[in-house]
Amino acid sequence: MTARPILDEETRSLVKRALASRVLTLEEIKTVVASLMTESTVVDSQRLADGLRNAGLLTRWQASKLLAGKSRGFFLGAYKLLRPLGRGGMGMVYLGEHQVMKRQMALKVLPPEALKDSRRIERFKEEARASAQLDHINIVRAYDFNEAGNKLYIVMEFVDGIDLHQIVARDGVMSYDAALDAIAQACEGLVHAHERGVIHRDIKPSNLMLRSDGVVKVSDMGLARIGWTEADDGQESKRLMGTADFVAPEQALNSKTVDARADIYSLGCTWYFLLTGKSPFRGESVAQRLAKHQTAAIPDVREVRSDCPEALAMLLMRMMAKKPADRPSSAADLLNQLQRLRAGRGDFDSRHEQLAAMVTRSDSAIDEKLFNATMDDSSGMPISEVEVVEVMEDFDFGSLPPLDVGGGSVSDFSSASASPLSNGTIARPGKMPTQSGVGNVARTAPPPHNGTSQKSADTQLVMLGIGLAIAVLALVLVVGVAAYTIARPLPQTAPKVKAMEDGKGGKVFVVE
Questions:
Q1: What architecture is domain 75-230+237-370?
Q2: Would you give the distance in Å from CA 290 to the centre of its chain?
Q3: DSSP reduced 3-state for 144
Q4: Sequence spans of domains, the chain
Q5: What does the alpha-carbon distance between residue 196 and residue 191 come to, in Å, rounded to a whole number?
Q6: CA angle 477–479–484, rounded 5-degree value
Q7: pTM of the shown model
Q8: CA-CA distances (angstroms) from residue 275 to 162, 167, 169, 267, 363?
Q9: C-alpha 250 chain-centroid distance
């Protein structure tokens, strides 16, 4: 018998939204539906979404949006949005894939409410301009600044990994060698930036990204500044913009006049956090923490970790000195001291293996809290509702390749208990992936058939041949008639001769 898919209204609505979003094509959906039918002809919305995910056609975030009834917000300019990467004070960062080049980038998007604030727009542009000057392995690169659908965004390098704050929150404090490696790499990035006149002003653990190969990259270069702005409630109260746990004393007073030594102070506070799991100064309020940066004694890391080498502890305290003049004079000076410290610790991990081991595959997974992140579609290419209806009427799921089960049940088609797409392979109708003995490689078995189905196929072939023969004969006849008409000579007519008298007794012959 011939099996046909059974889809309820909810599943059909999911298909309509998928087509309207332009994330999926009609053929991709049909292929997955046909594959899912090898287990059961009943395909509900969740099963279809899971199948599309397992086939690599949807990300988890895209599937969740479609299931939630969304059909817009999947594109930004030339990029298809795959998932959110993080949320910050300047807006959302999405992982996007260029529709033509298929290259994945991080897209930092200024939130819509910020478009009403000229100062926030200018700060966003400042980051883009600052990042454009920088090209270093230890700095997240920025490639483009663009606008699409009344949205401003920066196209940046995608760092496949996790930030150092998340590392400590998950795994606890770092070893001395791993923390020293991370701080030294960040310092190399700062040397490059400072030489080009760019002061970061917001160095902290969450702005140091750890890539899967152990490379540390400074992010948000030139974006964050300490400043004062009106509170969200519209009252006259003021709130601090920036990160109070890692800010230099002089930066809290005037962020516009700070130099490279403010970044050195913040890097020292970050190093302290990596080794202790705590910020150097704690308080119940932002004001209390800022005051302690100004007046409290510099904490000694050995009070928390008594086995800390003295040379490391002393350098860390110099980095967190209250007066800029008491700190290392520049990032280059600090880097020299860090390198001497590394040399004194013997066989240094030049390939960053300790740091690389901290990054797991799950670190690139989407945060559950970001699942509700969404935006309006700004691609400028929305498909109309009429087009969707027309496509659905043409599709109607009746055009799927029929599954000939030879009189058996559809469930007999699958020998595996898992979904046919569970290993990421799209199973075509009549072909089911099975587990081989070695390497978990999918194999395909020939589809079962019987004499009835073979006879039907032979009959169809005969009818097709007759139809083609008639079409060829008709074509030959038309061509022959046309050729004869063109080559036929024009008809010749005999002239007529008429005799007439000329009035003088003579005759005149006229030829007509």
A1: Orthogonal Bundle (1.10)
A2: 38
A3: strand
A4: 2-72+382-437, 75-230+237-370
A5: 9
A6: 95
A7: 0.69
A8: 18, 12, 12, 13, 21
A9: 39
Strand partners, 498: 510
Query: Closest by alpha carbon to 40, among 16, 6, 87, 1?
Result: 6
Q: Which of 50, 163, 181, 202 is catalytic?
A: 202
* Separation between Cα atoms, residue 240 and residue 452, nearest integer Å: 79
Question: Considering just the CA atoms, what is the radius of gyration of the chain in Å?
Answer: 37
Instruction: Indicate if 202 belongs to the active site.
Output: yes
Q: Which residue has the tokens 């960053």?
A: 352
Query: What is the rounded (10 degree) CA torsion for 30, 34, 37, 39?
Result: -120
CA angle 12, 373, 68 (to 5 degrees): 20
CB neighbour burial string for 231-269, b if at least 16 within 10 angstroms, e if fewer: eeeeeeeeebbbbbbbbbbbbbeebeebebbbbbbbbbb
Q: Where are the alpha helices (DSSP H) in 344-436?
A: 353-356, 385-395
Q: Any residues with CB less than 8 A from the CB of 141 and at least 6 apart, and which? A: 131, 134, 135, 156, 157
Determine how β-strand 434-435 pairs with β-strand 442-443: antiparallel
Tell me the average pLDDT across 114-142: 90
pLDDT one-digit tens code per residue, 244-293: 899 999 988 888 888 999 999 999 999 999 999 999 998 888 889 999 99
Q: Rounded CA gap, 303 and 307, in Å?
A: 9
